C-alpha cells in the first residue's frame, strides 16, 4: 500500500508541475497580448449593449392594444367575476327651475344606460346630503351635478337645501377637509351670461364646495349659457351636448381602470400634461375643431390654485424667503388675470367686434323646435307670429278680448306678433314659460322690417284660412279676418329692442294697420325715440325696487332707475301729445302649469277683488276714474277725466282718423303733432264700467266650457 501511495503521489506532482507550466505559459502570452484582449472585450460589451437597446426600442414600438404586460395577461385569464370593477354607474343630481336641467339629467341617464352602466336621476330636494352623501365615497358611482343658477346667483328652489348644507359643510371643522375623500364627481352649470356678476354662480360654488371636502373631479366643470351670443356652442343645449360627449368618453375610460392623465400637482389652474399634449398636437397641426374642444371646460378656481400652491411650499415660510414668495404670488396673479382676459376673448367673444365674429341668430335649433310646438310661426331669425285665442273666439262670435271692450279693436282682425323674441326680464308670471331668449341689447343677426311684416301677415292669413268651414265660424268675420287691421306687438319678448322698430311701425301705418306696442319699462331712451304709435303700453308690474326685482327678475343692474326713467319718458310723450295716459289693471290669468313659475290657480284673484283694489286706487287719484271693465279677463280700465265728455266715456279709437293723422305727421316731417283726443270715439254702453254686460259684446254669444282644457295662448 505504501509503495502504491508513493507511486500515485509522484505521478500527481509530475502532473501538477506540467499544468502549472502550461498555465504560466498561457498567462504570460495573455499579458504580452493584453491590448488585443482589452479591445476584444470592449467590442463584445458594445455589441451586447447595442442588441439590448434595439430590442427595447422594438418593444416600445408595438401598439398599446397589442402589448400586454404579465400582470395584464394574468388579469385577462381570470374569470369575469374576479375582474376589478372601477365604475358601477352614475347618480345624476339636478337643480332646476324651468325644467331644462331636469331634461338634461334624463337625457344623460339614457345615454349612461345605453353605455351599459346603472343610472339614477335624483331631484336635489328629495336627497338628504347629511345622511347619504358620504356613502358616495365608497359606492363606485360617479356623481354628476346639473345645477341652474336662479335669481341673484341663488340656487333653484329644489336645490336650496342641498347647496346650503354643502356650503356649511365645506367650512365646518366637524366634517373635516377629507369628508368626501373618495367621492368622484362632475359638475355642469346652467346660467345666462347676461346676468353680469351671477353667471353660473351655483355651478361654480357646488364644484368649489365639493372640492373643498376632498371630492375628486373626473373632469372639468362645464358651463351652459342661455345667451346664444356668448354661448360657446351657440345655445345651452349645444353646450351641454359638448360637455356630455366628453363626460361619456371619460366614463368609459374610468370603467377601464384608466387613471387621470393629470398628476394632480399642477399649479395656477393649468394642467402641465395638457400643455404638453397641446404642444405635441400643435406640432402635428391639429384641426381647429379638436383644438377648440380641448378648451371648452375649465375646472380650477383661484382658491384651489392658492391651496395647491400652499401645499407645494408648505405651511411655514422663512422670513428671508417672504419677499421672493410675494413676488411669485404677484407674478402668478398678474399672469392669471392676463390668461383670464384672453380666455374670455377666446371663448365668449367679450373683446371681439362684429367684424371679427359674425353675429349669431337669436333662434337656435332647439328654441325653434320648442316654439314651433307651442304654435308659433317663426319669421327669419328673431321674429314670430301666433294666433290669439281671442281671435279664434271672435271668429266664432263668442266675444273679443279686453282691447275690443276698451278701445274697439276687432279681435278677429288683430295680428299678434313681435319683431324680437328676446326680453330683458324673466318675470315669474311669464305665460310663455321662459322659452324665449333674454338680453340687454341687440347682439344678434337682424332681419329687415319689410321681411318681418310681409311674412307676419302671410303667416297670420294662413292660420286664419285654417278656420274655413269650421263649425260656428261666421262667414263675414272669416272674410274680415283675412284683412289685418290691428297689430298687437305683445306676443312675447321686448319689441322695442328691435333696432328697426320705428321702420316696422311706419310700415304698419302705411298699410293702414294700427299699432299696439307693449314695453317692460327697461328701455327709456328707446321710448323717447319712438315714433307715434296708436297705443303705447308701459308695464308696471310692481311698486317698489325690491318687489320689482323679485317679480320681473330683470337683467339690468340699474333696473329700478331704468323703470323710473321709462315712466318719465312716457310722461314726456303725453306732454308732447304723442301718447295718452290710461291705466289697465289685470288680475293674474291662469294659463296652465309651468315649471318656470310656482303660480297656480290659487294666485288668481276674483274679479270683485280686482274691482275693489282699483276703486281704492281711484279714490287716491282725483283726475282718474274707472271707465271700462272686461270681467272675462279680470281687467279694468282707469282713465283720465279728459276722456269723459258730457258724462260719457270716449275711450274707443277712431282708427281711420288715426291713419289720416299719422299720414299728415309723416308728410310734415314730424312737425305736425296730434294727441289721443284727436282720434277718440264714443265707448258703447255695454263696455262701460257698471253695465250689466260687464264688458261682453252683446252682438256675440257667451260660451261657457263645461270641461276646460289648458290653453296658454292669448294676449
From TrEMBL:
Reaction catalyzed: N(1)-methylguanosine(37) in tRNA(Phe) + pyruvate + S-adenosyl-L-methionine = 4-demethylwyosine(37) in tRNA(Phe) + 5'-deoxyadenosine + L-methionine + CO2 + H2O
Radical SAM core domain: residues covered: 407-648
Keyword Lyase: yes
A single GO molecular function term of this UniProt record: metal ion binding
Pathway membership: tRNA modification; wybutosine-tRNA(Phe) biosynthesis
Composition bias type Basic and acidic residues, residue spans: 279-294
Listed EC numbers: 4.1.3.44
Compositional bias annotation for Basic residues: 265-278
Residue ranges of the region described as Disordered: 262-320
GO terms of biological process kind: wybutosine biosynthetic process
Keywords: 4Fe-4S, Iron, Iron-sulfur, Lyase, Membrane, Metal-binding, Nucleotide-binding, S-adenosyl-L-methionine, Transmembrane, Transmembrane helix, tRNA processing
Cofactor: [4Fe-4S] cluster
TM region positions: 35-55
Domain Flavodoxin-like stretches: 90-248
InterPro entries (UniProt xref): Aldolase_TIM, Flavdoxin-like, Flavodoxin/NO_synth, Flavoprotein-like_sf, rSAM, rSAM_sf, tRNA_wybutosine-synth, tRNA_wybutosine-synthase
Function comment: Probable component of the wybutosine biosynthesis pathway. Wybutosine is a hyper modified guanosine with a tricyclic base found at the 3'-position adjacent to the anticodon of eukaryotic phenylalanine tRNA. Catalyzes the condensation of N-methylguanine with 2 carbon atoms from pyruvate to form the tricyclic 4-demethylwyosine, an intermediate in wybutosine biosynthesis.
Entry similarity comment: Belongs to the TYW1 family.
Descriptive protein name: tRNA 4-demethylwyosine synthase (AdoMet-dependent)
Lineage: Eukaryota, Metazoa, Chordata, Craniata, Vertebrata
Amino acid at each position: 500500500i505504501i509503495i502504491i501511495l508513493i507511486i500515485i503521489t509522484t505521478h500527481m506532482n509530475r502532473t501538477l508541475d506540467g499544468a502549472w507550466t502550461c498555465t504560466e505559459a498561457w498567462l504570460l502570452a495573455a499579458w504580452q497580448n493584453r491590448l488585443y484582449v482589452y479591445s476584444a472585450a470592449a467590442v463584445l460589451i458594445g455589441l451586447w449593449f447595442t442588441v439590448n437597446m434595439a430590442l427595447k426600442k422594438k418593444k416600445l414600438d408595438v401598439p398599446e392594444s397589442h402589448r400586454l404586460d404579465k400582470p395584464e395577461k394574468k388579469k385577462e385569464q381570470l374569470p369575469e367575476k374576479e375582474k376589478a370593477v372601477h365604475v358601477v354607474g352614475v347618480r345624476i343630481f339636478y337643480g332646476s327651475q324651468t325644467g331644462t336641467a331636469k331634461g338634461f339629467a334624463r337625457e344623460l341617464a339614457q345615454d349612461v344606460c345605453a353605455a351599459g352602466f346603472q343610472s339614477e336621476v335624483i331631484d336635489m330636494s328629495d336627497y338628504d346630503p347629511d345622511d347619504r352623501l358620504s356613502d358616495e365615497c365608497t359606492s363606485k358611482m360617479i356623481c354628476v351635478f346639473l345645477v341652474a343658477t336662479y335669481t341673484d346667483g341663488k340656487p333653484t328652489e329644489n336645490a336650496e337645501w342641498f347647496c346650503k348644507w354643502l356650503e356649511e359643510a365645506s367650512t365646518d371643522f366637524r366634517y373635516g377637509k377629507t369628508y368626501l375623500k373618495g367621492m368622484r364627481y362632475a359638475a355642469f352649470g346652467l346660467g345666462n351670461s347676461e346676468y353680469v356678476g351671477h353667471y353660473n354662480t351655483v355651478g361654480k360654488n357646488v364644484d368649489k364646495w365639493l372640492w373643498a371636502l376632498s371630492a375628486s373631479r373626473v373632469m372639468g366643470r362645464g358651463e351652459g349659457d342661455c345667451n346664444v351670443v356668448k354661448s360657446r356652442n351657440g345655445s345651452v343645449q349645444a353646450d351641454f351636448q359638448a360637455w356630455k360627449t366628453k363626460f361619456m368618453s371619460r366614463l368609459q375610460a374610468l370603467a377601464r381602470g384608466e387613471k387621470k392623465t393629470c398628476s394632480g400637482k399642477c399649479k395656477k389652474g393649468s394642467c402641465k400634461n395638457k400643455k404638453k399634449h397641446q404642444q405635441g398636437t400643435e406640432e402635428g397641426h391639429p384641426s381647429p375643431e379638436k383644438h377648440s374642444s380641448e378648451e371648452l371646460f375649465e375646472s380650477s378656481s383661484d382658491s384651489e390654485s392658492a391651496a395647491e400652491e400652499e401645499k407645494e411650499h408648505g405651511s411655514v415660510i422663512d422670513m428671508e424667503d417672504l419677499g421672493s414668495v410675494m413676488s411669485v404670488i404677484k407674478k402668478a396673479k398678474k399672469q392669471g388675470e392676463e390668461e383670464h382676459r384672453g380666455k374670455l376673448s377666446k371663448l365668449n367673444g367679450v373683446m371681439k367686434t362684429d367684424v371679427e365674429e359674425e353675429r349669431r341668430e337669436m333662434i337656435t335649433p332647439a328654441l325653434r323646435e320648442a316654439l314651433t310646438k307651442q304654435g308659433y310661426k317663426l319669421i327669419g331669425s328673431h321674429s314670430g307670429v301666433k294666433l290669439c285665442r281671442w281671435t279664434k273666439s271672435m271668429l266664432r262670435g263668442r266675444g273679443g278680448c279686453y282691447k275690443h271692450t276698451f278701445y274697439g279693436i276687432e279681435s278677429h282682425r288683430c295680428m299678434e306678433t313681435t319683431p324680437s323674441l328676446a326680453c330683458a326680464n324673466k318675470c315669474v308670471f311669464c305665460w310663455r314659460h321662459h322659452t324665449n331668449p333674454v338680453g340687454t341689447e341687440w347682439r344678434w343677426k337682424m332681419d329687415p322690417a319689410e321681411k318681418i311684416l310681409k311674412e307676419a301677415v302671410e303667416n297670420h292669413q294662413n292660420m286664419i284660412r285654417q278656420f274655413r268651414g269650421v263649425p260656428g265660424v261666421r262667414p263675414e268675420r272669416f272674410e274680415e279676418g283675412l284683412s289685418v287691421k290691428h297689430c298687437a306687438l305683445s306676443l312675447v319678448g321686448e319689441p322695442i329692442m328691435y333696432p328697426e322698430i320705428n321702420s316696422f311701425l311706419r310700415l304698419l301705418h302705411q298699410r293702414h294697420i294700427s299699432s299696439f306696442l307693449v314695453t317692460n319699462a327697461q328701455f327709456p331712451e328707446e321710448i323717447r325715440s319712438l315714433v307715434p304709435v296708436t297705443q303705447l303700453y308701459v308695464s308696471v308690474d310692481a311698486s317698489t325696487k325690491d318687489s320689482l326685482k323679485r317679480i320681473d327678475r330683470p337683467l339690468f343692474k340699474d333696473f329700478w332707475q331704468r323703470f323710473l326713467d321709462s315712466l318719465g319718458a312716457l310722461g314726456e310723450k303725453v306732454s308732447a301729445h304723442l301718447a295718452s295716459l290710461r291705466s289697465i289693471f289685470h288680475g293674474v290669468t291662469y294659463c296652465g302649469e309651468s315649471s318656470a313659475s310656482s303660480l297656480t290657480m290659487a294666485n288668481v284673484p276674483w274679479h270683485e277683488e280686482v274691482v275693489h283694489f282699483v276703486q281704492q286706487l281711484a279714490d287716491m287719484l282725483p283726475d282718474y276714474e274707472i271707465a271700462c271693465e272686461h270681467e272675462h279677463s279680470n281687467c279694468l280700465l282707469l282713465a283720465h277725466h279728459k276722456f269723459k265728455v258730457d258724462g260719457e266715456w270716449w275711450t274707443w279709437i277712431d282708427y281711420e282718423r288715426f291713419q289720416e293723422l299719422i299720414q299728415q305727421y309723416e308728410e310734415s316731417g314730424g312737425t305736425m303733432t296730434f294727441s289721443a283726443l284727436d282720434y277718440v270715439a264714443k265707448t258703447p254702453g255695454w263696455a262701460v264700467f257698471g253695465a250689466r254686460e260687464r264688458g261682453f259684446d252683446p252682438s256675440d254669444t257667451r260660451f261657457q266650457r263645461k270641461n276646460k282644457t289648458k290653453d296658454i295662448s292669448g294676449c
